[in-house]
What we know:
Layout: H1 4-11, E1 24-29, E2 36-44, E3 47-56, H2 59-72, H3 77-81, H4 85-91, H5 102-126
Antiparallel strand pairs: 1-2, 2-3
The chain binds FE2/S2 (inorganic) cluster.
Amino acid sequence: MYNEKVVDHFNNPRNVGELTDADAVGENGSFKCGDTMKIYLKVKDDIIEDVRFQTYGCGAAIASSSMLTEMIKGKTIDEALQVSNQDVADELGGLPPLKLHCSNLAADALHDAIANYKKRQESAVKE
Ligand code: FES
């Protein structure tokens, strides 16, 4: 059902955990299945220096979360914002059609984290 890359990211997920000093946190949940993802970003000069995730979900959701963290590390905030659900699925070499929605969890949580980052930046400027 899953290709080797997906199985590898599920069995050995990269960047799992929490960043207690994160500059941004994002969350997303699937109404379809109840699975959730939380993502933490450490950002310096608009570049994502570090990223961690916590996902309570299916194998495809965990593999997507893991792959996403690898894809965005070192990217600027604006570059990371361009990463779509489809990009994550493509980078994984594809997901079975029934599991395609699982990749949404990761990219949508990232977009939530970026919104959180921008909000924090705006508040910092105002202070
Ligand atoms: Fe819920 Fe995959 S079944 S994210």
